[in-house]
Amino acid sequence: MTEKKQAALIVGGGVAGMQAALDIASQGFKVYLVERTPSIGGRMAQIDKTFPTLDCSACILTPKLSEVAHHKNITLLTYSEVGTVTGKSGDFRVRVRRKARFVKEDLCAGCGDCAAECPVEIPNEFDMNLGFRKAIYVGFPQATPNVYTVDKENCIDCGRCLKVCQRNAIDLEMKDKTMDLHVGAIIVATGFELFDVSQYPRLGYGHYANVIHAMEFERIINAAGPTHGHLVRLSDGKKPHSIGFIQCVGARDVQKGVPYCSRVCCMYSIKNAVMALEHYPDAEVWVYYADIRAFGKGFEEFYEMAKKRFGVKFVRGRVAEVMEGKNTGNLVVKVEDTESSKVRLIEHDMVVISPGVIPSEGMHTMATKMGIEQTDDGYVQIDHSFFGPILTKVPGVFVCGCADGPKDIPDSVSAGSAAAMKATIILSKGGV
Ligand SMILES: Cc1cc2nc3c(=O)[nH]c(=O)nc-3n(C[C@H](O)[C@H](O)[C@H](O)COP(=O)(O)OP(=O)(O)OC[C@H]3O[C@@H](n4cnc5c(N)ncnc54)[C@H](O)[C@@H]3O)c2cc1C
Q1: Are 287 and 270 in contact (CB under 8 A)?
Q2: How many percent of the chain have pLDDT more than 90?
Q3: Residue 325 DSSP label
Q4: Which end of the chain has less neighbouring CB within 10 Å, N or C?
Q5: Residue 108 and residue 156: Cα distance in Å, rounded?
Q6: How far is the CA of 400 from the centre of ligand 1 (A)?
C-alpha cells in the first residue's frame, strides 16, 4: 500500500493506543505513537492471565507489540511526552519531548551485557517494586522497543556499561530532544492508574506485609515476576493456605472522590481467586464484595465456575477492618456478612486488596494542552454518551481505552479501533 500524506498522533501505547495505531497505519496513513515509559504495552503487559478465558496475557500481547514495532507506517516515540499542541483538526502542530534514554536506539541490540555489568540494583516499577532491576534496564523481557534505558537518578556513572557495550550504544551525556510533528488527528489513549489503597489505613496496606494489592498479586503469580510465579506471602515466603480478596477499594466511594464503579475489579479478582486455587487446590479463597458486576461476554459464567468448580467463597459485605495476628503475620478480616446479618471474623494468611481505577497521572496537564474537557472524576469528557463515545469536545481529537473511564481489554481495543476509524475520516479528507 502506498503511504498517504496525512499523519495521526496517538498518545499512550497501551492496548487501546496500539490498536488505534495499527488500524490507522494499515490504511496507509503515517502514525506517531508517543509513549511516556520506555516501552509500549501498558498495563496488559503487567497482568498474568486475562479474564474470562485465562489466556496468558503476554502470549496475546507480544505478537501485537511486535506488529506495532515493525509496521512501516508507525514511528514509535517511547520515553517521550507531548509538549505543545496548536492548530486545528486536519492541521495540528505538536511538539514532542524525547527524553534522553542515554542509549542510542538505532545501535542498541538489547543484548543485556550492560545490565549484567551494572552494579546498581533498585526496585523494578514493572514488578510493582517487588523485584529488582539495574540502573541500565529494560522493564520486562518483551519490552518494545528492545532498547535499554539508563535511569540517571540511580546511575552512579561508574562507566562499566560503556566498557562492555560492543556497539558503543551508550551515551551518558545524551540530552533531551524535541521533535515537531504535523498531524491531522490526535488520539488520547493514556489509560489509567491504580487508586492508592493506603488511603484506607484500616485495611492494613503498607502496614502489614501480607496485605498486598491486585497488581502486586498479578506480578507475584507471574512466572516472569519477582517470585518466578511462586504464590508466597511477602513476610516469610510461605505458601498461603487462606487468601481473602477485598473488593471496591477506591471505587464506589464518594468520600474518597471515586463514586464510580471501576468495572474491572470484580472480574480481575475472580480471575485471581481462580488462579490462586489453580496453584493450590487445597487452599481456601474468599472474596468480600459489595455486589458482583459480571456484565461482559462470558463473565457471569466465569463467576459461576469460580464458585462451583473452584469453590471460591463469596461474602457479601464491605470489609470494616484488617487486623494482624501476633507473631504469625496472619490477618483477620472483620466484615458484616449482609446475607446473614452477622459480623464475621475470618483469618487469612494473605489479603489482596482490589484497587479501583483512576485517570492517568498528568491527565489535567495534557487535557489543558489539547483543550479537551475533563469529567468531574478527571477522565476525558466525551462528546456524546450514545453517538460520540470516542469523540472529545475538540474536533480532530479522539479518545479511547481507559482514558475516558475504566474498561476491560476487549472494550479498550474496540474503542481503539473506533477512534482510528474516526481519525482516518479526517485524514482521508485532509481536514475537518
Ligand atoms: C489488576 C488488574 C488486572 C486486570 N486484568 C484484566 C483482565 O484479566 N482482562 C481484561 O480484559 N482487563 C483487565 N484489566 C484491565 C486492563 O488492564 C485495561 O483494560 C487495559 O490496560 C486498558 O488499556 P489502555 O490502553 O486503555 O490503558 P493502559 O494499559 O493504562 O495504557 C496506557 C498507556 O499510556 C501511557 N501514558 C499515560 N499517560 C501518558 C502521557 N501523558 N503521554 C504518553 N503516554 C502516556 C502509559 O504509560 C501506558 O503505557 C486489569 C486491570 C487491573 C488493574
Answers
A1: yes
A2: 96
A3: P
A4: N
A5: 21
A6: 11
Distance CA 27, CA 420 (A): 10
Q: Give the residue, by CA position, lying nearest to ligand 1 atom 12.
A: 408
- CA separation for the pair 357, 355 (Å, rounded): 7
pLDDT for res 384: 86
Mutate to test the pocket of ligand 1, among 23, 33, 47, 76 (most ligand atoms within 8 A of CB): 47
Index of the ligand 1 atom closest to the CA of residue 11: 43
Q: Which of 261, 379, 409, 417 to mutate to test the pocket of ligand 1 (most atoms within 8 A of CB)?
A: 409
Ligand 1, from 64, 212, 268: best to mutate by most atoms within 8 Å of Cβ?
A: 268
> Does residue 25 register a pLDDT over 80?
yes
When pLDDT is averaged across residues 200-223 and rounded to a whole number, the result is 98
Mean pLDDT of 188-213: 98
Rounded Cα–Cα distance for residues 243 and 354 (Å): 13
Ligand 1 close to Cβ of residue 298 (< 6 A) = no
> Which atom in ligand 1 lies closest to the alpha carbon of residue 51?
8
* pLDDT above 60 for 2: no
CB distance 218 to ligand 1 below 6 Å: yes
State residue 4's pLDDT score: 63
Handedness of CA 139, 143, 146, 152 (dihedral sign): negative
Query: One fold for both 7-99+176-191+360-429 and 196-356?
Result: yes
Name the residue at shortest CA distance from atom 25 of ligand 1. Answer: 14
Q: Region 219-238: what's the mean pLDDT?
A: 97
Mean pLDDT of 262-270: 97
Count of alpha carbons within 13 Å of 10, Cβ hemisphere only?
Answer: 37
The answer to whether the predicted template modeling score (pTM) of the entire model surpasses 0.70 is yes
Question: Where do the structural domains in the chain lie, given as residue ranges?
Answer: 7-99+176-191+360-429, 196-356
Asked if CATH classification 3.50.50.60 holds for the domain at 7-99+176-191+360-429, the reply, yes or no, is yes
User: What is the CA(252)–ligand 1 centre distance, in A?
Assistant: 20
Q: What is the spatial distance between Cα 9 and Cα 398, in angstroms, rounded to a whole number?
A: 10
- For ligand 1, whether the C-beta of 264 sits within 6 Å is yes
